[in-house]
Fold this protein.
Amino acid sequence: MPHTNRDTATMETNEILREQIFEIIKNQLRDNDPPETKITYDRLIKNGFDDFQTRQLIGQCLAVELFDVMKNGKPYNNERYIKNLLALPKEPFE
């Protein structure tokens, strides 16, 4: 089945979101804010995940928060974000 313009736009939007999420993670690691991001990054690397896999896992936690803010209009939940980070590599369910 050929890609439609909508499929292409969705893929481009997803790529933009992924890049923005990775930029946020880079900033969190650089600024050590929250410190749990760096703690989680170091722990996952130590447990055999590579840099890209680790950032993807952290990105899943961040995506949960961004989705809740954008889709449901809820405030950013830093406590849940940290809880989900500390539970990695288990996927965030909240």
The chain is about 75% helix and 0% strand.
